[in-house]
Amino acid sequence: MRQPPFEHCLDCPIIIKLMDACPLSPFWQIVQEEGFSGLADTTLLYELFMVIISLVPWISGLILGILLLKRRDMRSLIRAGTHLCAHITCDVVKVVYFREDRPDGSCSLKYGLPSCHSIFAGLYTSWVLIEILVIGMKLKTRHIIAVISMLIVPYSRIYLIYHTLKQCIYGWTIGFVFAVMGLTLHHQCKKRRKNKQVKVKQ
Predict the structure, then answer these.
(1) Which of 64, 145, 166, 196 is deepest in the core (most CB within 10 A)?
(2) Cβ of 62: how many Cβ atoms within 10 Å?
(3) Residue 121: is it exposed, middle or buried by C-beta count within 10 angstroms (0-12/13-18/19+)?
(4) What is the pLDDT along the chain (202 residues), one digit of tens a residue?
């Protein structure tokens, strides 16, 4: 089994390590020894940006969960459920079907195909774009910010040596498929509910 090649992988905070978002440089050691002044190097700032982008799917997932608890509507339930099913599928096919290692230099020893971060990003982006371009949902600033962030996620996974381009493409494609299935289910549920309402009125 491969071993982490960088000592800073072991020094990475546990929460960041669990989210598979450790930077390439001994980032945390530099902060401890030199403070935030040690981050003046543009390379380190760029790595920090990549780490933050890699955390976007986790943050977005938390937001979707909060919205589900707050709204408790059919759309939020189906959307959150679709993301959950996609994540479970990712974990299963990684171990059972593909069993492909991550690239050399990765801080993670888990299998890398497909990229779960890319699945989330692909699902989220596809869902929003389909709702806007096909269904006609109103475009808002938060949608633009979210989509741009999600589009960078696969690149951040490659930059931080957690995945290969192939693993990210597989992930994004699976995410797109789940988005189509989730929105189709939502459409069918809305259609069935409307039919029931029409029958009750009659």
Answers:
(1) 64
(2) 10
(3) buried
(4) 455 556 667 778 888 888 999 888 777 777 777 776 767 778 888 988 999 999 999 999 999 899 889 888 888 899 999 999 999 999 999 999 999 999 988 888 889 999 999 999 999 999 999 999 988 888 888 889 999 999 999 999 999 999 999 999 999 999 999 999 999 999 898 888 777 766 666 5
Report the amino acid identity of residue 179.
Answer: A
Contacts of 68 (CB under 8 A, 6+ apart): 76, 77, 79, 80
Q: Which of 103, 105, 109, 116 is nearest to 163 (CA)?
A: 103
Cα-based distances in Å from 176 to 26, 42, 173:
35, 34, 5
Contact predicate 8/28, CB 8 Å? yes
